[in-house]
Amino acid sequence: MADKKGMLLQLADHVWIYPQGENLERIEPAVGVIMTANQTVLIDCGNSPGHAREIQRALHERKAPPVSTIIYTHHHWDHIFGSCVFDAEVIACRQCADELDSMAEIPWGPAWLEHEMKENPLLERSNRAKLLVIEDWSELRIVKPTRVFADQMTLEVDGITLQLQWVGGPHANDSITVEVVGQGVLFVADCFYPPPFHLRKPDDTPDWDMLNRLRKDSIQWYVHGHGQPLTSDEIQQLWQNTKKQA
What we know:
Elements: E1 9-12, E2 15-18, E3 31-35, E4 40-43, H1 49-61, E5 67-71, H2 77-80, E6 89-93, H3 94-103, H4 110-119, H5 124-133, E7 147-149, E8 152-157, E9 160-166, E10 176-180, E11 185-189, H6 208-213, E12 221-224, H7 232-245
Helix pairs in contact: 4-5
């Protein structure tokens, strides 16, 4: 499944992704795009204002309608720092909202990030990426959700049904999935990934059992945050390989 920088990749009639960036040092995740005739919904929104503007340009080239809604899959910076660029409603689960309350109190900027790295050198990869992708810290703002749900939520968008489900997982306790009902696409983001690098233990691996449990007959594409979308057969094979190695 090839893609070009700056181009949307279509998965279904109303579903696209803005793929992960090729420079892994920038930690640019895949961003979901649900497009109807009247509005656009984003699943996450980029790791910085600059990344979000790249997404905006791709939407403009596709003649997409305005972004009305952003759904946060979890609170990690690379998935939510771009939201301040958009004038949109933001939806998140309760756990994510609580995390963002804390993040909003942080004095984000080079001084804070350098301080964090001195306190915990394991944060260097993440913090160096922030310093790389954010050019103007004065424009960064943590956008808190305007709609919050507990375990699940159904969102109707011009005849398209989105099913939001809190799943937790080893990467972030506030992780959710977003199914585009009838379109064969499930956004799983980072839910099955191991913990972030600064919290990761040597034996931590992706939770293939968790991802395998999310498989269902109606889903063709499983979109995760940092890589190409997976098919059901690919997930099953990854899961079986893990079992063989156990």
